[in-house]
Amino acid sequence: MILDANSIPNGSVLEADLCIIGAGAAGITLALALQDSGLDVLLIESGGHGDDAATQALYEGSVADEKLHSAPDRYRQRRMGGSTTIWGGRCMPFDPIDFEARDYIAHSGWPIGPQALQDYYPRANQLCEAGDFAYTVQTAFDHPVRAMIGGFDSAAFSTDTLERFSCPTDFSRRYAQALAAGPLRVLQHANLCRLDSGETGQPAGPAHVRTLAGVAFTVRARAYVLAAGGLETARLLLASPGASGRGLGNAHDVVGRYYMCHLAGTIGEVDLAQASSVWHGYEISDEGVYCRRRLALRPQAQRELQAGNFVAR
What we know:
Blueprint: E1 2-4, E2 13-21, H1 25-33, E3 41-44, H2 53-56, E4 90-91, H3 115-118, H4 121-127, H5 137-140, E5 157-165, H6 171-181, E6 185-188, E7 191-197, E8 204-210, E9 216-226, H7 229-239, E10 283-284, E11 290-297, H8 299-306
Parallel strand pairs: 1-6, 2-3, 2-9, 3-6
Antiparallel strand pairs: 4-5, 5-11, 7-8, 8-9, 10-11
């Protein structure tokens, strides 16, 4: 069921097995996965089904250099569906190098490897309506497709990997009916203000929630999931002092330190004068999904580039 948090009596204490904060792609995906789990799940969302200026303003903040990053309230949406309500549908898996510890990048390396995600990618593709988890020309097409660059052959670059494009799928429009018909509760217009925390190692909670109309209540749950995106999740953790006084999970002062936005840069130029043909349009896979080839650095060339040793040949 989907409810308005303004209908909750002021000062109420809501109980749940699991409280998910944020009804964007991650929060809705988790809620759908737990529909039939038998758990009492509460999904809280700051916005409603549409755009609301007052709610969107809660994303406002300052940036050190707007040439490097847009204002926090731009390109992110504080409403049901989150930023899937405005995305372009582009889907790609991580590259293996993204997980690696590299001696030329301080603090690099993930605690998991790419194989930890492999079993989840196909379902993610389905939820995003991006077709099969097939991101190479060989796996995505049963028929020959035109070459991206005719006659191109390189030990450093490949042209056989793909980007896949969702409809794009708005998670609110696509999955709101399933959420409304299910047993879990969705509370719209509910803003998490902070999570309490006891002694080190103790579970977090309760969650303190308010609406813009002034209704305040708490949520006591066995567990909480912050699914509010890369920026807002860090802000919520830092707004909750925790046992260290520096923010939940921030005893080592790393919360929010490794955020990365879309990076862009020029590493060189490609002379296509000798190419027999050039095609950088879209191909349609057998299941009807638009795909586009990528001119991508091979793994060893990626490492050489990042280490400053790359020379294109």
